TrEMBL record:
PANTHER family recorded: GEPHYRIN, MOLYBDOPTERIN BIOSYNTHESIS PROTEIN
Keyword Magnesium: yes
Protein name: Molybdopterin molybdenumtransferase
Pathway(s) the chain acts in: Cofactor biosynthesis; molybdopterin biosynthesis
UniProt EC number: 2.10.1.1
Catalyzed reactions: adenylyl-molybdopterin + molybdate = Mo-molybdopterin + AMP + H(+)
Pfam families per UniProt: MoCF_biosynth, MoeA_C, MoeA_N
Cellular component GO terms held in the UniProt record: cytosol
Cofactor (UniProt): Mg(2+)
PROSITE patterns documented for this protein: MOCF_BIOSYNTHESIS_2 (PS01079)
Native source species: Aquimarina atlantica
């Protein structure tokens, strides 16, 4: 059994960014990481732009201007604006090349087709210069940028339709267990609803993984072996839930060993999630997560998600951590490090009731996990604890 820190280190050492680069439309790019610098194909703004509704002025020395015309957004004209002349202009319209400034309409009076200024105006006031935001051929976004909604909008504003990104892994989720039935059916004695696959896939889609396939397998060695062989061959990542402990019907470990995967670790000194298993086979990353639902999800957030984000090109792939002061006392029962479902508010954190690894009730109301390393045996009210924020 290895320590949490060692497990994290082994995953980090054995997971690298994909070298597969794909081109995708920006409408599908949310959550992907840019694999190349994106250069701006245009100056933005592409022309001198008015930042206000008002008047473009041919000079800034006078206070009275003859009004000689109008330019609105989208107009393709460049009126000759001499000193002492003004034109009506609107936000987003191209500013005549000879204009020295734009003044807001609230700051002028119009009398007899003349624009009368109440105050002087500074040169270039209210004019967005050509290329103010970005110049043509400059780096608009560097390699390694995670694409957000703002990023998609920014790329669209530069006229970019497609980007080169790191491919995200295709993921197989396998739920093991004879007792599992899909929600919606009536439970027979001994059965429970299968909740891990929808939970894990929801956590994956939440952060932009889309290529996810689901499999359900009974506790039988031969079919477990066949399904694992098939999924390890066809997917970049295989996440198995359950069947990884030591019971007579836990066949996942045995099947993985028979498939000659490269086992990197099995069992971490932590609660929940002790029987976590991590292996690789050729390019495929394999995690066997303990079947207990809270163990599965804890292991997912602490180990699996960072690994999948790293493969996808993320430079920061662990959940954000902070510290907070505990509102409650808590005493550990065993020696293992613990990840406790908790609710963090500002600089305080409350460890929730119901920490058993079979329970999701507290997890469903948690926004954080409190991490108690192996050497911490208890915490008292007011003690500073490590807090891992959940997405
Ligand atoms: N003799 C020992 N027994 C156990 C040990 C041990 O060290 N020695 N470890 C315990 C710990 S800790 C954990 S965690 C579990 C992990 O067991 P498995 O990964 O083999 O998981 P299963 O036995 O298949 O299931 C455990 C539990 O979770 C329920 N489950 C499983 N899959 C799902 C699913 N998809 N949706 C909802 N619930 C699921 C299953 O019904 C069981 O109740 O082993 C302990 N035992
Ligand atoms: O390792 Mo288990 O998740 O404690 O029940």
């Amino acid at each position: 059994m290895i320590a949490v820190e060692k497990a994290l280190e082994l995953i980090n050492n054995n997971i690298k960014k994909t070298d597969v680069i794909i081109t995708i439309p920006i409408s599908k790019a949310l959550g992907y990481v840019l694999a190349k610098d994106v250069l701006s194909p245009i100056n933005m703004p592409p022309f001198r732009q008015s930042a206000m509704d008002g008047y473009a002025l041919g000079s800034v020395e006078e206070k009275t201007f003859d009004l000689i015309g109008e330019v609105k957004a989208g107009d393709n004209t460049d009126p000759n604006l001499e000193p002492g002349k003004a034109i009506r202009i609107f936000t987003g319209a191209p500013v005549p090349s000879r204009a020295k400034a734009v003044i807001m309409q609230e700051k002028v009076e119009i009398q007899n087709n003349q624009v009368l200024l109440q105050e002087t105006v500074l040169p270039n006031a209210n004019i967005r210069p050509l290329g103010e935001q970005i110049k043509k051929d400059d780096i608009a976004l560097p390699e390694g940028t995670v694409i957000t909604a703002a990023g998609v909008g920014y790329l669209a504003s530069l006229g970019i339709t497609h980007v080169q990104v790191y491919q995200k892994p295709s993921i197989a989720i396998i739920a093991t267990g004879n007792e599992l039935v899909p929600p919606g059916q009536t439970l027979k004695y001994g059965q429970i609803y299968e909740s891990n696959s929808i939970m894990l896939s929801t956590a994956l889609t939440d952060v932009g993984f889309a290529d996810i396939s689901y499999f359900k397998v009974e506790d039988e060695y031969d079919i477990t072996l066949a399904l694992l062989e098939n999924t390890i061959t066809h997917y970049d990542a295989v996440l198995i839930s359950g069947g990884i402990s030591v019971g007579d019907y836990d066949f996942v470990g045995k099947a993985l060993r028979a498939l000659d995967v490269d086992e990197i670790f099995y069992k971490v000194k932590q609660k929940p999630g002790k029987p976590l298993y991590f292996a690789k086979k050729q390019g495929t990353t394999i995690f066997a997560l303990p079947g207990n639902p809270a163990s599965s999800l804890s292991c997912f957030y602490i180990y699996v998600l960072p690994a999948l984000l790293k493969i996808s090109g993320y430079k920061e792939y662990h959940l954000k951590q902070t510290t907070a002061s505990s509102n409650l006392k808590y005493a550990k029962k065993g020696q293992r490090a613990e990840f406790l479902k908790a609710y963090a508010e500002e600089d305080k954190v409350t460890i929730l009731d119901g920490q058993a690894s079979s329970m999701l009730r507290s997890f469903a109301q948690a926004n954080a996990l409190v991490y108690l390393p192996e050497d911490v045996t208890e915490i008292n009210i007011g003690d500073t604890v490590q807090v891992i924020n959940l997405p």
